[in-house]
Amino acid sequence: MGGILRDKKAYLVFLVPGIAFYLFAVFYPIIDSVRLSFVEWGGIGPEEFVGLDNYIDMFTDHVFYESFFNNIIYLVIVVAMQLLIGLLFAVLLTYMNKNVSLVKTLYYVPCIITTVAVGQMFRSMYATEPMGLFNIVLNAVGLEGLVRSWLADVNTVLAAVSIPEGWRFTGMYMVIYYAALISIDPEVSEAAEIDGANAWQTLWKVKIPMIKPVIVLSLTMCITGALRGFDIPYLLTNGGPGNASELMSTYMYKQAFASNKFGYGSAIAVFIIIESILAVVVLRLISGRKKD
Questions:
Q1: Which long-range contacts (CB under 8 A, 24 or more apart) does 262-265 make?
Q2: CB–CB of 224/276 below 8 Å?
Q3: Which candidate, 251, 264, 261, 266, places its Cα nearest to that of 42?
Q4: What gap in Å lies between CA 253 and CA 262, rounded to an integer?
Q5: Which helix (H) or strand (E) holds 78?
Q6: Tens digits of per-residue pLDDT, 60-116?
Q7: How many helices (H) and strands (E) does the chain have?
């Protein structure tokens, strides 16, 4: 009995600091954002309770809708790059016999590079004066007609701000998938080969289903991260030109900290939180239904 009590005390020693930090750094700001979404406040002075006015303004704001649909496109590009390319590289890595650690390290490096450095690198790659890497490659392969200022063109800017975020964390998901793939018992693959399955069938019919929980977890992380995407789009274009690359997070920031509409900005923040929760719930329901 004494040992059990001591074990419980040990659990608390490790759990309490983490729970306290979560409550202070995550839970409290969420609750306070909900509270602020019902008031009108410019950052100083008294707050004025306005009920649902901020939410009514939000759902009648055409810029909000534009940022919402931009966010969906941003999410699709980021998820496709991080998960599909990450999975492809992880599969290829399982066939390597040498320098595996070196390759993993090189692909993981972008995850630890500062956001400002990533943004500046892609800004120079997209540039036309002087010619950036993307335009140099297009010229070299005879596609001069596609050369443009990628961050100033309303037709390309959204994809241009999405690609850096997708590229940045592809290596992280590659490492996650690689760890899951090599954890599969080799006897499973051998049994599939004995049954006549080729390499593609073994991968698609055996290995991928076995790492499904990891895929669902990665997809959850990626979707919630993309819905909260802010830093690189803000650094590269600040939502421009016009509102062509405006995301919900950048619009929320502008309303709260540039226009001093903290109540309206908080309403957008609450919408982002609810949207992220709903996305996770739907994903879990779909994955659970397929499992059944």
A1: 262/36, 262/41, 262/42, 262/43, 263/36, 263/37, 263/38, 263/39, 263/40, 263/41, 263/47, 263/50, 263/54, 264/54, 264/57, 264/58
A2: yes
A3: 261
A4: 9
A5: helix 62-79
A6: 999 999 999 999 999 999 999 999 999 999 999 988 888 888 888 888 888 888 889
A7: 16, 2
